[in-house]
Design goal:
Layout (H helix, E strand, L loop, with lengths): L2 H20 L7 H5 L5 H13 L10 H9 L3 H4 L6 E6 L2 E6 L4 E6 L9 H22 L9 H20 L1 E7 L7 H4 L3 E3 L2 E4 L2 E9 H16 L3 H17 L9 H7 L2 H13 L1 H15 L1 H6 L2 E5 L14 E9 L5 E10 L4 E11 L2 E2 L5 H13 L7 E2 L3 E6 L5 H10 L1 H12 L3
Helix pairs in contact: 4-9, 6-7, 9-10
Length: 431
């Protein structure tokens, strides 16, 4: 296959993909407009608990909770769901489900790390609450000061038995995108033994569940339950999309990868691999073509093009692996000036980014030296002209790694009155 034919086919596909998106196949998701797909508390725990709560504003009662319990294998064990309650962030527990007798602790981990004795603390909180409630009911009228020592000892034994019984009514679900068990750091004195967590003679139910399996299955079963209730169906559909993103199961029917590997795969890949092997040369030619395209404009605006060899490492900034093969600088500049530059990392062998930086006689200003960096900074701040400068170990107007915007950013630089004003001011600066 000729390169021309290959690029024509790819161009045609991308045009069709764009039309396809405009007709409805898009990636818009209201949840992701508000939160990151990995936001455990505000997105995932909030949505899961909201759907599971029988008293929720979905007005579907315990329908979603029943389906969830079925998917995680706890429906029979949990029992009656008609009077169940679901809480988010109860005593820092991500999702807490209870019907008064049975208690489910859901620890939600997207990519977060386990915390010290986290699950141990949650188990103890719920167990002690339940045993205390039971003890309060039976001994609310008994004053321990009036009890004989034998009676007090007997009472303590009863309390211990009630605590042991409370553990039997607790289940812990450890939820992550893919199957993952909690660390000993989180379990504390509890140990995993099959489908249980064990601490001496005490035992609680345990299961590691995943977004990829149990949560996706629950969403699909819930969708079937709500049928044509449009807003609930849409809410579940958007959440399914989020879950598929974090589990890498979302299918993109208009993806370039799929296009390249479905038809003429061998020929396509031959060209793709050849392009990748020559990426450095291609990027250099691309940058040079853009600079040459704008040469007349560059020179007419009193800038000049400085091209350097990677071997010379001109303009390196305190590191031997960084150079500037393309730089657009003022023709009549002072000792210090702002220039547009394209950066090349020699060790990585790639064009990394581009932007506007402050230079000192063709070398980027070393900010590790207190002078003259400090005095220049103070000088420019005094003239109130650098409010738009960012700082990430160096001064720059903007730094961009999206090379597709190189031409538009170069044009922005050439049209910028602020750049011109700054360079004029720097002519007056004397180190």
């Amino acid at each position: 296959m000729e390169y021309k034919d290959f690029f024509e086919r790819v161009k045609g596909f991308l045009e069709q993909a764009e039309i396809h998106k405009r007709r409805g196949n898009n990636d818009f998701n209201p949840y992701l407009e508000m939160w990151s797909e990995s936001n455990e508390v505000k997105l995932h725990s909030a949505l899961i608990s909201g759907f599971l709560n029988p008293l929720g504003n979905h007005y579907q009662g315990d329908v979603f909770l029943e389906e969830f319990l079925q998917c995680v294998g706890l429906k029979e064990w949990f029992g009656d769901t008609s009077n169940a309650r679901v809480h988010k962030e109860y005593e820092n527990i991500d999702v807490y489900i209870t019907n008064g007798k049975r208690h489910i602790i859901v620890e939600n981990k997207i990519w977060g790390k386990d915390q010290d004795r986290q699950i141990e603390r949650y188990i103890e909180i719920i167990a002690k609450e339940q045993s205390r409630d039971s003890s309060d009911t039976e001994s609310s009228e008994i004053d321990s000061n009036d009890m004989e020592s034998s009676e007090l000892e007997s009472s303590e034994n009863v309390a211990q038995q009630e605590l042991s019984q409370a553990y039997k009514n607790i289940a812990v679900l450890y939820l992550a995108p893919y199957k993952r068990n909690p660390s000993g750091y989180s379990l504390g004195k509890w140990e995993m033994q099959g489908d249980s967590l064990v601490n001496g003679d005490n035992k609680v139910k345990f299961k590691a569940i995943t977004y990829k399996k149990e949560i996706l299955a629950w969403i699909e079963k819930s969708q079937a339950k709500v049928g044509c209730i449009t807003n609930l169906n849409a809410a579940l559909l958007f959440y399914k999309d989020v879950v598929q993103i974090i589990t890498n199961t979302k299918e993109n029917t208009m993806s370039l990868e799929k296009f390249l590997t479905e038809n003429n795969m061998e020929e396509n890949m031959k060209i793709v691999f050849e392009i990748l092997e020559n990426k450095d040369k291609i990027m250099e030619s691309y940058c040079e073509a853009i600079v040459e395209k704008h040469r007349k404009q560059i020179e007419s605006k009193d800038f000049e093009i400085v091209k350097t060899s990677k071997d010379k490492k001109m303009g390196r900034w305190n590191r031997i692996d960084l150079s500037y093969p393309f730089m657009i600088k003022p023709k009549n500049c002072g000792k210090y000036y702002f220039a547009f530059c394209v950066e090349y990392f020699i060790q990585k062998g790639e064009y990394n980014c581009y932007g506007v930086k402050i230079f000192h006689q063709n070398s980027i200003l070393d900010i590790n030296k207190t002078e003259p960096y400090k005095t220049i900074k103070e000088y420019l701040e005094d003239i109130k002209e650098v409010w738009w400068l960012n700082y990430d170990e160096r001064w720059h107007y903007w730094l961009n790694t999206s090379i597709t915007e190189l031409e538009s950013k170069l044009q922005e630089f050439l049209d910028s009155n602020k750049i011109k004003a700054l360079n004029e001011k720097l002519k007056e600066y004397q180190a």
